[in-house]
C-alpha cells in the first residue's frame, strides 16, 4: 500500500463518522447518507493527490452537499418520495421527540437551505467556510440561513429553534 493510500485510509478512519452525520443531515435518510458518503469518498480518493495537501474534509463535505442537492432535484423532477428512517441510537424520550421534530422540519426545507443549516449549526462552520463549501457568496449563506430559520421557527411553533438544534446534535 502506498503512502497516499495510507493517508487516505487514515483520513477516512478519523473523519468517517463526522462525515456520515453531515450526509445524514443533508438528506435525512440513513441508507442514502451512507451512499452519499461512499460517493464522496470515492470522488475524494480519485482526486486524493490534489486534495490531500489542502484540507480534504471541506472537499468531502462539498461533494456530499452537492450530491444531496442533485439527488433531491432529481427526485423532485421524478416526483419520488423516499422513505426516511432515523438512525437507531439510544436516547432519552424527549431527545428522540426533539430529533424527530427537527428532522421532519429539516426534510421540509429546500436542499440548499438544509445544507446551510447543517453546515452552519451542526458542523459549526463560519459563514465564509459554509459559502466556500457550497460554492456561493457569504450573502447567499446569510439569506438562505435566514429563510431556513424562519421556516424552522414556523414548523416548530414558538419553540426556540436554536435550543432544538442544540439539543438535537448534543
Structural account:
It is a single chain. The chain has 170 residues and is mainly alpha-helical. The chain has two domains: 82 residues, Orthogonal Bundle (Rna Polymerase Sigma Factor, Chain: A), CATH 1.10.1740; 85 residues, Orthogonal Bundle (Arc Repressor Mutant, subunit A), CATH 1.10.10.10. Helix content is 77%, strand content 0%. Helix 1 crosses helix 6. The radius of gyration is 16 Å and the shape is globular. 31% of the residues are buried. One of its GO terms (molecular function) is DNA binding. This is SigE family RNA polymerase sigma factor. It holds the Pfam family Sigma70_r2. Belongs to the sigma-70 factor family. ECF subfamily. It comes from Nonomuraea phyllanthi.
Summary, kept brief:
By secondary structure, the chain is an all-alpha fold.
Give the helix/strand layout.
Layout: H1 3-27, H2 30-46, H3 48-51, H4 56-78, H5 93-108, H6 111-122, H7 127-134, H8 138-155, H9 161-168
Architecture per CATH nomenclature, i.e. the level-2 architecture of the largest domain: Orthogonal Bundle
Radius of gyration: 16 Å
Q: Tell me, briefly, the overall form.
A: globular
CATH top level label of the largest domain: Mainly Alpha
CATH superfamily of the largest domain: Winged helix-like DNA-binding domain superfamily/Winged helix DNA-binding domain
Number of helices: 9
Mean pLDDT: 81
How many structural domains? 2
The number of strands is: 0
Low-confidence stretches: none
Order of helical and strand elements: HHHHHHHHH
Domain RNA polymerase sigma-70 region: 16-76
GO molecular function: DNA binding; sigma factor activity
Pfam family, one: Sigma70_r4_2
Organism: Nonomuraea phyllanthi
Amino acid at each position: 500500500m502506498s503512502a497516499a493510500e495510507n493517508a487516505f485510509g487514515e483520513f477516512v478512519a478519523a473523519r468517517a463518522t463526522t462525515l456520515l452525520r453531515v450526509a445524514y443531515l443533508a438528506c435525512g435518510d440513513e441508507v442514502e447518507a451512507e451512499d452519499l458518503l461512499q460517493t464522496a469518498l470515492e470522488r475524494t480518493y480519485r482526486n486524493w493527490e490534489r486534495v490531500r495537501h489542502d484540507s480534504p474534509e471541506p472537499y468531502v463535505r462539498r461533494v456530499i452537499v452537492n450530491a444531496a442537492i442533485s439527488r433531491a432535484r432529481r427526485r423532485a423532477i421524478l416526483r419520488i418520495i423516499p422513505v426516511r428512517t432515523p438512525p437507531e441510537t439510544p436516547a432519552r424520550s424527549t431527545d428522540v421527540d426533539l430529533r424527530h421534530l427537527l428532522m421532519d422540519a429539516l426534510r421540509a426545507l429546500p436542499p440548499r437551505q438544509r445544507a446551510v443549516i447543517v453546515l452552519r449549526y451542526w458542523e459549526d462552520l463560519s459563514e465564509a467556510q459554509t459559502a466556500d463549501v457550497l460554492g456561493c457568496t457569504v450573502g447567499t449563506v446569510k439569506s438562505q440561513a435566514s429563510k431556513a430559520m424562519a421556516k424552522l421557527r414556523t414548523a416548530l411553533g414558538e419553540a426556540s429553534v436554536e435550543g432544538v438544534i442544540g439539543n438535537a446534535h448534543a
